[in-house]
Amino acid sequence: MRFRFRGTVMAAAAFSAFAVQTHAVNQRDDLSERDRARVEEVTRTADDFSEPEAFERMQGGAATTTKLINADIFSHPSATLEFAEQQRFLLGNGLFRKDWVTAPSSTQASDGLGPLFNARACQSCHIKDGRGHAPNGPEEQATSLLVRLSVPPSEEQEREILEGYLSSVGEPVYGGQLQDFAAAGLPAEGRVRIEYEELPVSLSGGETAHLRKPVLSIDKPGYGPLRPDTMLSARVAPPMIGLGLLEAIDEGDILAREDPNDADGDGISGRARRVRDETGQWKLGRFGWKGNAAGIMQQSADAFSHDMGLSTPLAPDHWGECTGAQAACRAIPHGAQPQFGDQEVPGDLLELVAFYSRNLAVPARRDIDRPEVLAGKKVFYEAGCAGCHTPKFVTRRDAVVPALAFQLIWPYTDLLLHDMGDGLADNRPEGMATGREWRTPPLWGIGLTKTVNSEASYLHDGRARTLLEAILWHGGEAEAAREKVVEMEKAERENLIRFLESL
To answer: May I ask which residue range the UniProt record assigns to the signal sequence (predicted)?
Structure first.
């Protein structure tokens, strides 16, 4: 059935005025009184687990794809797109899959890669529009995982961070991200090396789960040793589905779930991250593992610049992550061609990639009425998982893409930052996000992760090989939920996983 719903302490102080202002907007200005009542009704927390909720199968509203389940299931357009929009989607798809080359090249519309880079194409990391994976050992190449770098800020840099003009301070020579590939004749910045320590976890019923704790290091640094106080954080590429729908959630609906001081005493203290968008305005950070981008256009431009060294109107430096200390890197020719524009990825191409990214459809759920799935859903709620993984929202009527407007969606995220404990901490602050905080990732489509990419792994650094491992790494605000899972009977845990696999 288809349903289109119609008709830090210093950081906290610095943003308090903004928080008060935005919390006042919890009454949506895009809804009539009648529509507001309808939205409140359909987004009410479930309390009956004997049968599926209405429209639950269509996770992305009317935009949900019902195509055949196979390795391409994350690569279909929103079902609500008009014909002309589908053509734009296909053009964006071509750019997303395009292999860029270093300059100068005979293929002038495709050169400008690097000089330092992590991948030649967006699709190289977001494999079939799904998530990447961590290497399984120290000898394996990190093909869809990157490493962020930063050093402690000076007093002046800390002010810039609080004012939102700086997210973190890059390593003086290597910058904010390690690039493990380089143009011919130029050394790469280094090689990511990940080893694992095994951590056994005892579960009720005599079971033992085996987690793997990553130990991250950089081999063969190409430009000398990194500063001793450099902080490292590994990140796998997240899945691309449903991004436009997340962008279309009303900001007030998200901010209404903030509880930075745990006023309700439930142990969950989510808080929004505020960032400056491409216009310099304060906005809610919705994208990235720590909520570092407000919108899809900004996120796309950052990826072009940092991951592939390609300039765009929003990130116009042709040499990407090459720092001033890497003189040979900045001396290499760039790929901007006067006949195409001032950047290597002109504005119209960036817009096509952003349109594609906004409209990758969420797949329909499977087996939603099976008894074990319904039992697993009940366990999900009873364990407290829905405290952060908010099941549903209704998107704004005036969404950027009209085809995504006023949809009942089921992303299972609150898009807020949460303290996830010591086990998952990267101890690397980013903007107002601490080294223990992560944005709640959406769960829709998570059951098809291995269908799309059999090597895919979970959590921000890909350490978890299974959904159960991912759950058992939860700590901090999620510690109580994790302990309930540990103490469950085996059948209950299996039902919980079966529910997640249906998403």
So the answer is: 1-19
